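Intended use. Records like the one below are meant for learning the mapping from a protein sequence to its folded structure. Do not use them to infer anything beyond what is encoded.
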Amino acid sequence: MSRASRSIRLSRRRLLTAGAAAAAVTAIPGAGVVPPGGYGSGSLTPWRSLTRSISPAAQIQDVVEADGLFLFGDSIAVQDEDALAFDLWRRTSTTLAVDAWAGRPTGPAVDVLARWAKTYGLPHRILMATGTNDVFTPPLFGGQIDRVMRLAGPSRAVYWVNVHVGRFKDSTAIQTADQRNTKWINLQLDTARKRYPNLVIIRWAEFLAARPDQVRTYLRDGVHTTIPVGQDARNALIVDAIASA
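Structure written out for the chain above:
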C-alpha cells in the first residue's frame, strides 16, 4: 500500500474518552445567567474528558512528505473529518492528518500545531476548523490567530473555517449571546485577513446566513452539522477553497 493510500485510510487511531462530540459546547450555567466576567454564552465544557481524533505519527509524517494538509479542529471536525479526508483525496489527491478534540478552544489547538511544527515540520497548507468554543471568551481568539500565522509563516496557506453558534435549545438570552459572540469571532478573522494575505477564510457562517429558513437542515443543534446534508455542505466549502488555490 502506498504512503498516500495509508494517509487517507478512514480508520484512524481514536482516543475515545467519556462524552460525545455533540457535548462540545453544552456546558451552561443556569438559563440566562452570565458568570462574573463572562460573555453571555456560558462556560466552556471541561473538554479534556471529551472525544478526540488524532492521526498516528506515521500518517502525520506521510502527509508532510506528500505536502498534504494538517487539520486542527473541535467536535465538528471529530464528526466530519473522515468524510472530509475522502472528499479531499477524491477531488484534489490531497492527504490529511488530523488533531481534533471536542470542546477544545483555539489556544490548545495552536499548542498542538506548534508541537507538530517542531516534531514533524509543516506542509504548505494548514486547515483550522476551530473557534466555535471561543464564543465563551471571544477576546482571546485574536491572539490565537496571530500565533497560527506566525507558526505558518508567509509562505504557507492557512485555511480557516469561520463559525456559527446559535444553540436551538438554550434560552433566548444565551442564543442572543451566541449570535453576538459568533460575530465577534468572525470579525477577528476578517480583521486578521487584512494583515495576512495567506489567510483564507472559509465562509460557513455566510453560507448559513444566506439560508435562514434552512439552518435546521444543515445544523442538528445550532452548532454541529447534520449528516449527510450539513456535513456535505461544510466539507464542500473546504474542498472548494483548497481545490481553487
